[in-house]
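Why should sequence recovery work at all? Because a backbone constrains its sequence more than one might expect. Tight turns favour small or flexible residues, buried strands favour hydrophobic ones, and helices have their own preferences. The token representation captures these environments compactly. In the example below, the structure is given first.
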């Protein structure tokens, strides 16, 4: 209870300062709506279903892009990590494209894939792929040499060393990449929806700004933060329960 109370101190302090700033009259409600105005706006969006529709659309896009990146990046990282010639050929190219922001490619993606769902899925895929791939690759390539030597001393074949040592050793790295990639996918999607979309939470924020609805803009920002936090919490809890053998032991293995 004490820890939970401490976590709420800063949000409560922000709300108090926010209300004081509004009551001081230094800003109009157009620039800075009161907390109550934001609550009323959020309730209206929730009651008429608009908010839930946009959240559902955004979460669906994230799910598709994230899953495509995960099922592509992890196997590719394992192959490249275990096969040195592939790493030498592809490593430099992957490093180059890693530094290109996905939103910088959005104009090209719209030209190639159109303004529909494919271009936004591609942005999520590109933003998610590299964190997952690079973490998985690090885990596969940085297996403790002493563990491998011990495995060979016990008569394990190369394939058995991969299956029993390298891959289990890389699981925490893969999990970290998936967790980071999930956050990247959410942030990149919001940016893409603000540029080229007719639905989604990012579009909701941009549309509210165009209609001079400051309270709805703040509602959208709060929803973005809440959805991102819930997804990260769910990923952390899933990792604690499913991968507890590899992530430090027990249900409290991951912070």
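From this structural description, the recovered sequence reads:
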């Amino acid at each position: 209870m004490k820890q939970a109370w401490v976590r709420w101190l800063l949000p409560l302090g922000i709300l108090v300062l926010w209300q004081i700033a509004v009551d001081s009259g230094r800003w109009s409600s157009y620039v800075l709506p009161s907390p109550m105005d934001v609550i009323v706006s959020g309730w209206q969006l929730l009651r008429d279903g608009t908010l839930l529709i946009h959240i559902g659309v955004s979460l669906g896009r994230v799910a598709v892009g994230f899953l495509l990146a995960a099922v592509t990046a992890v196997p590719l990282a394992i192959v490249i990590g275990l096969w040195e010639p592939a790493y030498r050929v592809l490593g430099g190219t992957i490093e180059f494209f890693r530094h290109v922001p996905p939103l910088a490619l959005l104009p090209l993606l719209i030209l190639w894939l159109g303004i529909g769902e494919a271009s936004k899925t591609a942005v999520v895929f590109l933003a998610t792929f590299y964190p997952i791939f690079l973490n998985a690759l690090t885990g596969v390539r940085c297996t403790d040499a002493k563990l491998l030597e011990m495995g060979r001393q016990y008569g394990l074949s190369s394939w058995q060393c991969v299956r029993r040592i390298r891959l289990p050793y890389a699981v925490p790295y893969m999990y970290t990449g998936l967790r980071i990639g999930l956050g990247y996918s959410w942030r990149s999607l919001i940016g893409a929806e603000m540029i080229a979309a007719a639905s989604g939470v990012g579009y909701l924020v941009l549309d509210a700004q165009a209609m001079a609805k400051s309270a709805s803009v703040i509602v959208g920002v709060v929803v973005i933060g809440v959805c991102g936090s819930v997804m990260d919490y769910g990923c952390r809890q899933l990792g604690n329960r499913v991968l507890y053998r590899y992530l430090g032991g027990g249900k409290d293995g991951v912070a």
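A few observations help interpret the result. The radius of gyration is 23 Å.
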